[in-house]
């Protein structure tokens, strides 16, 4: 029974992911991906040619290889929330299903880690060509570390604290599976609307501090700021765009770099746009007379500091990477104009269309 259930849920899950992949990788996206991949390979080749063989670089490469094993660490269980109740009299089937999910996760995680190693292999060969023992230790050790981290994460999340019996925390098992699926759907939600994706709202000490010091006279702006800083999806998206932009600035140059940075700003803007309609199902959103102009102004006041900080960080990385100051200024001016157009023209038009359909 567990084997049939595992097979059915595995197939259902991959059919759902394949449906979203078809929307993400449409004709235009594939064309852009091929262009970006080609440019990335050229930049990677140039980077390898100019990368000196030093102890510092060897330590950095080894660190990157080992750190890559710490990602994608949540194992699959394929156990739904109702399963512990449904299988109350047949816990063995539930344990078998969990075990099959862990074996599946180990296989998939190993393939992912080997794919990452293939990408990093040219860099590793350049730095450790004279040290084959270290090279093999990194290759085998990173895969082993990735599997160990995944098994440890699964064990910690599915056992009770101070446990002295072999009982499993089935609530933790189901929450682990929900978290894994939601993280995958979160990536799809960056590009398309995913109705199944649920946002995670949490209060953190640092977010409360920022909210306290980011107060304006516009109450709607304060509401948008609080929503942004306490919604993990928005924060993770913002950090991801900054990190990807840092990689682009430090590895590429010219119009390709500018085009990719403009794409990141556009992607970030369209993903934050729904914050304007986040409260339209609340009663006060209908009782309090808030106009579209006021919503647009609040959105402008939210996006200004966010996009501005992104551009400042990218500019600093450009200086550290040794780009000419004139080139950095030109890129910053182009990106500022692009951001202003997106925030004051594109987002305003989108807001008008969204609230016309109320």
From TrEMBL:
**One Pfam family of this protein, by short name?**
EcsB
Q: Transmembrane: present as a keyword of the record?
A: yes
Can the keyword Transmembrane helix be found in this entry's annotation? yes
InterPro entries hit by this protein: EcsB_ABC (IPR010288)
Extent of the signal sequence: none
Q: Which UniProt keywords apply?
A: Membrane, Transmembrane, Transmembrane helix
**Protein name as it appears in the record:** ABC superfamily ATP binding cassette transporter, permease protein
The GO cellular component terms are: membrane
Q: Which organism is it from?
A: Weissella ceti
Transmembrane stretches, start-end: 20-43, 55-80, 101-121, 133-153, 234-252, 258-279, 299-321, 327-347
């Amino acid at each position: 029974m567990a084997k049939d259930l595992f097979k059915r849920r595995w197939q259902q899950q991959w059919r759902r992911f394949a449906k979203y992949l078809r929307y993400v990788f449409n004709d235009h996206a594939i064309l852009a991906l091929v262009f970006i991949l080609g440019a990335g390979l050229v930049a990677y080749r140039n980077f390898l040619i100019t990368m000196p063989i030093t102890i510092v670089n060897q330590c950095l490469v080894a660190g990157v290889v080992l750190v890559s094993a710490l990602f994608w660490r949540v194992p699959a269980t394929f156990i739904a929330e109702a399963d512990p109740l449904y299988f109350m009299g047949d816990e063995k089937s539930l344990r078998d299903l969990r075990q099959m999910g862990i074996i599946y996760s180990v296989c998939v995680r190993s393939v992912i880690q080997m794919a990452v190693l293939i990408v990093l292999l040219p860099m590793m060969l350049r730095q450790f060509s004279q040290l084959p023992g270290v090279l093999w230790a990194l290759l085998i050790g990173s895969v082993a570390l990735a599997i160990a981290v995944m098994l440890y994460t699964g064990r910690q999340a599915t056992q009770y604290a101070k446990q002295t019996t072999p009982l499993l925390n089935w609530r933790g098992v189901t929450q682990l599976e929900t978290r894994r699926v939601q993280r995958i759907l979160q990536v799809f939600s960056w590009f398309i609307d995913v109705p199944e994706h649920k946002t995670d709202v949490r209060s953190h000490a640092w977010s409360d501090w920022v909210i306290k010091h980011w107060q304006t006279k516009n109450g709607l702006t304060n509401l948008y700021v609080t929503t942004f800083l306490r919604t993990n999806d928005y924060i993770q998206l913002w950090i991801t765009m900054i990190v990807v932009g840092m990689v682009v600035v430090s590895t590429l140059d010219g119009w390709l770099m500018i085009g990719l940075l403009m794409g990141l700003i556009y992607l970030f803007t369209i993903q934050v746009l729904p914050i304007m309609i986040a409260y339209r199902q609340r009663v006060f959103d209908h009782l309090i007379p808030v106009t579209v102009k006021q919503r647009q102004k609040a959105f402008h006041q939210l996006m200004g500091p966010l996009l501005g900080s992104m551009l400042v960080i990218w500019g600093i990385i450009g200086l550290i990477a040794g780009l000419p100051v004139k080139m950095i200024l030109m890129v910053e001016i182009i990106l500022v104009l692009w951001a202003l157009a997106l925030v004051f023209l594109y987002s305003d038009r989108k807001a008008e269309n969204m609230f016309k359909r109320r």
